[in-house]
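Example (one chain per record):
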Amino acid sequence: MLVKTFGSALNGIEAITVTIEVNIDRGVQFFLVGLPDSAVKESQQRIEAALTNNDLKYPKKKVTINMAPADIRKEGSSYDLPIAIAILAASEQISSELLDQYIIMGELSLDGSLNPIRGVLPIAIRAMQDGFKGLILPSANAQEAAVVEDIDVYGVDNIMDVISFLNGASNIKPIEISRYDQNIEDVYAFDFADVKGQENIKRALEVSAAGSHNVILIGSPGSGKTMLAKRLPTIMPPMTLREALETTKIHSVVGLLGNGLSLLKSRPFRSPHHTTSYVGLVGGGAYPQPGEISLAHNGVLFLDELPEFKRNVLEVLRQPMEDRVVTIARAKQTIEFPASFMLVAAMNPCPCGYYNHPTQECTCQPGAVEKYLNRISGPLLDRIDLHIEVVPVPFEELSKKSPGEKSSIVRARVTRARQKQTERFADIQGIHSNSQMNSKMIQKYCALNEECSKLLKGAMDRLNLSARAYDRILKVARTIADLDDSEDIKEEHLAEAIQYRSLDRENWGK
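Predicted structure:
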């Protein structure tokens, strides 16, 4: 007897519906075809033990299983449950009437209980798009899949629950959850109110968050670079439903979402160690998986001790920072992973760490500071809008009892500025913030009056700013004007933006 069940295969962060065909005939052999990996091939032993331990019969006949489409590799143990159900239906132990209405996925334990699987959110989205009535999944994954509307999600704990449901003898109800709520107050463990002093740095990070500008923090050890960077997500605007779904899909595919969670509501903060490889950073592998920059999608990628990263690792960031997508090409397939992230980098100003320190003397040899900075290529620095020098906080500031401004207050200002940018670029596809503007947009939206033009020209001549700083200064000035609720860029906006280009000064580090 031939029976079909339906599962799903992951291809990047998208899912593809898989038809699992089981045919039982005379004989004693077992065949599993359709490009399964080792974990799928091992399902026979898990299924046989699970059925036996639940007083079900594993057919002592020829069992042929085909997983179509056969040219897509099937990975992982999540096909255990649909294969087991198809075997039971083909051997006429359970009803097969409802099998064409549901996607069934789950990993079987030897006692018949179900373990959670990866990539449930994209699987649920694909099932809804393909017109299935519902999904049958392990209970630990049900909350995640239930955020997708127009499809029923059933969470089950073991194979017997699935059998009872398909035979009509169960009263299992679809999972219902409250829909996405944009209120993310108190989600974060950190707050800007914890930071003593550093008002100029907090202002720079506010500008960075408001325009989605990349930023690099340069300062001596213990000056607070990492502490400030970790608090940046707390002042970024709340994620929209579209952003939350995109981000959750990526984390779901990698298996980082966690059991019982539905949507990620807080923006991700990824901080890979400087020993990471370029594959770990951008993604890839024999069967491509998202890397750190995709896991930081719609959030922050923090690279601490930036000059300690290998040169080839940093260089692979350049194209994703511009395109906001990573394309992984292999001989048989090409996969795109989203990578719209804010880069926040931190570094010491020199090998000893005390160049430009207000109280301690730098002990580096002549030329060491410039050599240290040259570990970071010009094209990469060109893609970083704000260069901020962080100085240690004096004792008077550290000993203050009064808390600083809360992240929620700063976030409100940032959200208003982002809303202005959303309205400004509403008719331009792929542009959502000031940092993404191209040259034509800069000419249109960052026009300067005569006084501002003179100020910028004088600053570039006096501070020996490089030509690459010009567009960056205008973008940042536009963001500062948005924070000030100003339609035009004024002199004070431009003057503040000029301060944020420390590394473009020709005498810096010499």
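Caption: The first helix runs from residue 38 to 41.
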